[in-house]
């Protein structure tokens, strides 16, 4: 949902954004090269009155197809970036209380507990019209997850790796939809994760090995450009420290020395943490400048 998440949403491999307490939005500077393209997903400098932001996973292979969505205080929504599948067609949305940007789709939660979605629906990830009593949403790579007020969970979209097998979950307080996995936070501070079905294309990186986690208050799992390539899961503990499991080739799980963290978010190959003083820290891949958050200040908590 927010860029810095309490377990609702995981943002992108590429450019990164955060909302300030004054309603303005800051984004990392997209570093262009011959191997990537820019879709305007960081053009948020003129946004005002924003209370939540969500950035898509985009295409980690070349940095394209990214989009960023912002929720205004009046319940309307703005979006910039790639719109090939209509994922930015949110101009007529009203009464929205939460947003989440998937790979090529966007999901919004209305105040009445119903859900709206636009963009690519090839795998049914936008089939949320019949959802009711929803209190939180999370858009993964090509699936969408919703948390009901009774602590149960619903999911639609691609399920080739079991990422939509959440019907038996109960007592869930927060959700995060990733690439090939879904993670849920229980009220007792433990974490549930879907069982990963490995195949020739989709390799298991250990991102669901969260059974021994305790004292967790927020979760975030990465959503990359398919195939589970950069998958990892991050947990925020009640004491402000952070734990992480999964793929760590580029150091995206090197968070053991973080302290005083109040919110977390997992990108495809990077991880970001929000500190209680409104500053941010980041580790992992920085090929597009997505970890250049050292000068951020006054970032608001979700």
Description:
With 302 residues, this protein is an all-beta fold. The protein has one domain (17-284): Methylamine Dehydrogenase, Chain H, CATH 2.130.10. 0% of the residues lie in helices and 35% in strands. It is built from no helices and 20 strands. The chain has strands spanning 17-19, 25-27, 50-55, 67-72, 77-81, 96-101, 105-110, 115-119, 134-139, 143-148, 153-157, 172-177, 182-186, 191-193, 216-221, 232-237, 242-246, 261-266, 270-275, 280-284. A hairpin with a 3-residue loop joins strand 18 and strand 19. Mean pLDDT is 87; it is low at 6-16.
Keywords:
302 residues, mainly beta, Methylamine Dehydrogenase, Chain H, 3-stranded antiparallel beta sheet, 20 strands, 0% helix
Topology, element by element:
Layout: E1 17-19, E2 25-27, E3 50-55, E4 67-72, E5 77-81, E6 96-101, E7 105-110, E8 115-119, E9 134-139, E10 143-148, E11 153-157, E12 172-177, E13 182-186, E14 191-193, E15 216-221, E16 232-237, E17 242-246, E18 261-266, E19 270-275, E20 280-284
Antiparallel strand pairs: 1-2, 3-4, 4-5, 6-7, 7-8, 9-10, 10-11, 12-13, 13-14, 15-16, 16-17, 18-19, 19-20
